[in-house]
């Protein structure tokens, strides 16, 4: 995980590598999309919590 300054804030750059095997190999592109969307959602929730001072999670989070 790397951090860099960006537009008055901080950009988090994260990469990971995994290999799907067997039947999951066929669904690898779908699994990649699901993992990317989930990670983006989790970082948006984290961002909202940090900007709110660490209080309650925002609605829908």
Task: Please characterize this protein's 3D structure.
- This protein is α+β, with helices and mostly antiparallel strands.
- It has a domain at 22-51.
- The chain is built from one helix and two strands.
- The protein has one helix spanning 28-51, and strands at 2-6, 9-13.
- Strands 1-2 form a two-stranded antiparallel ribbon.
- It is elongated, with a radius of gyration of 15 Å.
Structural class: alpha+beta
Q: What sort of overall outline do the alpha carbons produce when their principal axes are compared?
A: elongated
How many strands, what sense, and barrel or not for the largest sheet? 2 strands, antiparallel
Our measurement of the CA-to-CA distance between the termini, rounded to an integer number of angstroms, reads 23 Å
Query: Could you tell me the radius of gyration in angstroms?
Result: 15 Å
Strand order of the largest sheet: 1-2
Binned, the helix content reads: 25-40%
Helix and strand element order: EEH
- Which regions are unreliable across 5 or more consecutive residues at pLDDT < 50? none
Strand percent estimate: 15-25%
Q: How would you classify the quaternary structure? A: single chain
Q: Mean pLDDT, nearest integer? A: 85
Tally of DSSP β-strands: 2
């Amino acid at each position: 995980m790397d951090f860099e300054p960006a537009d008055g804030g901080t950009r988090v750059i994260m990469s990971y590598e995994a290999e799907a095997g067997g039947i999951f190999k066929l669904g690898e592109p779908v699994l990649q999309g699901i993992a990317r969307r989930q990670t983006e959602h989790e970082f948006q929730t984290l961002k909202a919590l940090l900007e709110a001072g660490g209080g309650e999670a925002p609605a829908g989070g």
